[in-house]
């Protein structure tokens, strides 16, 4: 297991832009326990509002019972906006979004995407998509990092006093493609906020119930190596229908540091059951797993575990 000691100065909770010391590196269970929003150190108690990008969804999220609000950031016309591919524009900018969220006691998770919709990409690379594929792939890396830099500056200007997670899929996972450039993303975020909680994942494709593929040992070892010198909390975003096939690999990953957790997420058409979620709960420490899952499985799972 890696050492988890932190030094003084910026590395102990501050930053060059001066985020409130401790808030952004605090375990969200501690934050929500201290603010009396949950009763136990159980990751399943945390309620998520997913894809709160538009102004309407943002307002719904603020008024909801959710503890953590997740939204997606893309760059449009040189400004960070809240949108999830294939959308490329929004009625909500990151500035507007943050100014609304900062007045709440909810945590936030900002998800940085690495691609545009096919239509926009087609305009950029023209009819010679195949021959220009490599250059488009490099351009996508640059695009995603261009969104990160101004977004970090906006975050620093607001001095939010609530949990902040910064998320990106930085490695290739099962059937995945086009991750965000790992080194560029980590270097950019940590140059602004050395202790902000990172949410790191693998790009994945849809699996069917007959597929036995999960996160391989090589995949989790690559992630562990990337995170080896990080000192802040890190949660690994893992797809629910892959976790049951990757128990030993993910247990190994969590053993590398007590700062590591898992965040279970699901795609709209993923094939998984409440029994799969219960298996995950039995297999991992309940204070080290969060469940950002869709309905109806979310309600059924919470009912099954008595929450």
Automatic annotation (TrEMBL):
The Menorin-like domain, residue ranges: 42-115, 144-297
InterPro entries named among the record's database cross-references: Menorin_dom, PLC-like_Pdiesterase_TIM-brl
One Pfam entry name: Menorin_N
GO-annotated biological processes: lipid metabolic process
A GO cellular-component term linked to this record: extracellular space
Gene Ontology molecular function terms on file: phosphoric diester hydrolase activity
Family to which this protein belongs: Belongs to the menorin family.
Protein name stated in the entry: Menorin-like domain-containing protein
Organism of origin: Micrurus spixii
């Amino acid at each position: 297991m890696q050492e988890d000691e932190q030094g003084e100065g910026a590395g102990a909770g501050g930053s060059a832009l001066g985020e409130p010391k401790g808030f952004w590196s605090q375990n969200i269970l501690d934050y929500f326990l201290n603010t009396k929003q949950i009763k136990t150190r159980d990751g399943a108690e945390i309620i998520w509002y997913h894809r709160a990008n538009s102004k309407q969804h943002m307002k719904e999220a603020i008024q909801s019972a959710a503890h953590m609000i997740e939204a997606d950031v893309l760059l449009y016309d040189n400004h960070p906006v809240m949108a999830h591919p294939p959308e490329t524009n929004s009625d909500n900018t990151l500035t507007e979004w943050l100014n609304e969220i900062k007045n709440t006691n909810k945590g936030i998770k900002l998800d940085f995407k690495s691609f545009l919709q096919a239509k926009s990409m087609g305009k950029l690379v023209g009819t010679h998509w195949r021959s220009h594929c490599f250059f488009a792939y490099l351009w996508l890396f640059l695009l995603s990092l261009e969104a990160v830099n101004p977004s970090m500056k906006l975050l620093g200007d607001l001095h939010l006093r609530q949990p902040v997670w910064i998320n990106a899929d930085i490695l290739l996972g099962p059937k995945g493609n086009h991750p965000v450039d790992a080194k560029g993303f980590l270097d950019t975020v940590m140059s602004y906020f050395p202790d902000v909680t990172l949410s790191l994942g693998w790009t994945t494709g849809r699996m069917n119930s007959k597929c036995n593929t999960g996160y391989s040992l090589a995949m989790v070892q690559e992630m562990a190596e990337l995170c080896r010198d990080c000192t802040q909390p890190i949660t690994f975003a893992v797809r629910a229908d892959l976790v049951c096939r990757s128990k030993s690999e993910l247990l190994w990953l969590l053993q590398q540091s007590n700062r590591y957790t898992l965040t279970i997420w699901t795609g709209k058409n993923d094939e998984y059951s409440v029994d799969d979620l219960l298996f995950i709960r039995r297999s991992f420490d309940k204070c080290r797993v969060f469940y950002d899952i869709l309905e109806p499985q979310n309600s059924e799972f919470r009912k099954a575990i008595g929450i």
